[in-house]
TrEMBL record:
Its EC number is 2.7.13.3. This is histidine kinase. It comes from Pacificibacter marinus. The gene is yycG_2. PROSITE patterns: HIS_KIN (PS50109). CDD domains: HATPase, HisKA.
């Protein structure tokens, strides 16, 4: 009985030691996490108020540049639209709730919104406005900008106080738990002296397994937090903003004044563009990690291209560019993911339209080369310099850094195109002549 009792005691003690080690490691990990996460507490309200301050400055610069003949009417209106959207967002949703919780004086935001309404017509007709009225507007925004800077400092102080209180409370709890762990550890150490040396070896092996498990769980948690942050911080607010803009534009809140229709249209277009950029970022990440799913089916390319031309034509026409399809397309079939290949064409057509001259054409073509189907998208734009080379298909690459400011985009579109075409066993390339236009091609293996 004695050997069996000893074995049972050894097993029970082994479980006790394992629990102790796991608890100790968890407490150490908790303390480290508190220090790290505490240093990176929520900065949403701080960022938002600081962004309003920056947008006011950008608007002032745009107005001043226009008055000096160094800026454009369109840029002044764009900066006004961005400032309008930012100020509207500060009065509702999570940011507004947090500012209320901080108990800071946000009257300057309301005053800024009043000033935006007051000067809206002046900005819309700035090309006919008098210098005196423009100077008056700039002076008003100078005063508002100082007040907004003060609000940003108040929000920063409130956020710092909140973070400090949160960290101190959690560190006190962690310290108490560490003291308990130390007491348990000393008790366990006294028991260890009564066991054979082989029990120590068993304990060490179990500790290593626990460490690996904790590391794996920490990595999983970090990934989950990242995905949740992207969804919450980007998609969720954007959905709310887009929905509100759509309701305003449809007249759900009452008849829309004529003066507000254009700003609402601009806001709606910018919200949609931001949604596309977010989708590009997530798609690029999925393609990079190999988690993008493809569903291949047999596709008739002639009918597919016809559908894509019809669906993309309204967007292309916003640039005063015509989208057309070559006549007498050959009857070719491939196996591919209709949705992903549609994304490839949408990206190529979008680029062609954005960089085409008004009044020109974007032409979609299809031909057979040996056992491959070659699809082309040809524009009559400004062309691509030879120095761009293959780096154009890398992530976050654009022909010129000014492209992002002038045309918008993240530089991910062609990278996504290449990844999707590669996944279909195809190749993507381009020919270009500066000043005359560019043709992008991609080929796909024909269905046997």
């Amino acid at each position: 009985m004695k050997p069996r009792a000893f074995q049972l005691k050894l097993v029970l003690f082994g479980f006790a030691i394992a629990g102790l080690i796991a608890a100790t490691l968890s407490l150490v990990g908790l303390r480290t996490q508190i220090l790290q996460v505490g240093d990176s507490s929520s900065t949403g309200p701080i960022w938002f108020v600081t962004a309003i301050e920056r947008d006011v400055q950008e608007f002032q610069i745009a107005i001043a540049s226009y008055e000096l003949g160094l800026g454009t009417f369109e840029n002044a209106n764009l900066r006004f639209d961005i400032l309008w959207s930012r100020v509207s967002g500060a009065n509702r949703g999570e940011v507004a709730d947090k500012l209320l919780e901080y108990q800071v004086d946000t009257s300057v935001i309301n005053l800024l919104q009043v000033k935006l309404l007051q000067y809206e017509q002046l900005v819309m007709n700035i090309d006919t406005a008098s210098p005196a009225s423009i100077h008056s507007m700039i002076n008003d925004f100078n005063i508002l900008n100082r007040d907004i800077h003060g609000l940003a400092l108040d929000v920063l102080q409130a956020s710092s106080n909140e973070t400090r209180e949160w960290r101190e409370a959690l560190l006190r709890i962690s310290g108490e738990n560490v003291a308990i762990g130390v007491a348990i550890g000393l008790t366990a150490l006294a028991l260890i002296l009564l066991l054979r040396l082989d029990a120590v070896a068993a304990r060490n092996q179990l500790a290593e397994k626990d460490e690996l498990l904790i590391a794996a769980e920490a990595a999983n948690l970090a990934k989950s937090e990242f995905i949740a942050a992207v969804n919450h911080e980007l998609r969720t607010p954007l959905t709310s903003i887009s929905g509100a803009i759509s309701l305003m534009g449809s007249g759900a809140y009452g008849e829309v004044p004529e003066a507000f229709k254009k700003p609402i249209q601009i806001a709606s277009r910018n919200a949609k563009q931001l949604g596309v950029l977010i989708s590009d970022l997530l798609n690029a990440e999925k393609l990079s990690s190999g988690s993008m799913n493809f569903h291949a089916d047999e596709m008739d390319l002639a009918s597919f291209l016809t559908e894509q031309v019809e669906s993309n034509k309204p967007y292309v026409e916003t640039f005063n560019v015509e989208l057309s399809l070559n006549a007498n397309l050959p009857k070719l079939s491939v196996r591919g993911d209709r949705q992903r290949l549609g994304q490839v064409l949408a990206n190529l057509i979008s680029n062609a339209a954005k960089f085409s001259n008004a009044g020109t054409q974007v032409v979609i073509g299809l031909e057979r080369v040996q056992d491959r189907a070659v699809i082309s998208v040809k524009d009559q734009g400004r062309g691509i310099p030879e120095s761009a080379g293959e780096r154009l298909f890398e992530r976050f690459q654009q022909v010129d850094s000014s492209d992002a400011r002038e045309r918008g985009g993240t530089g991910l579109g062609l990278s996504i195109v290449k990844s999707i075409v590669d996944a279909h066993g195809g190749t993507v390339w381009y020919d270009s002549v500066l000043g005359k236009g560019t043709t992008f091609y991609f080929d796909l293996p024909l269905e046997s």
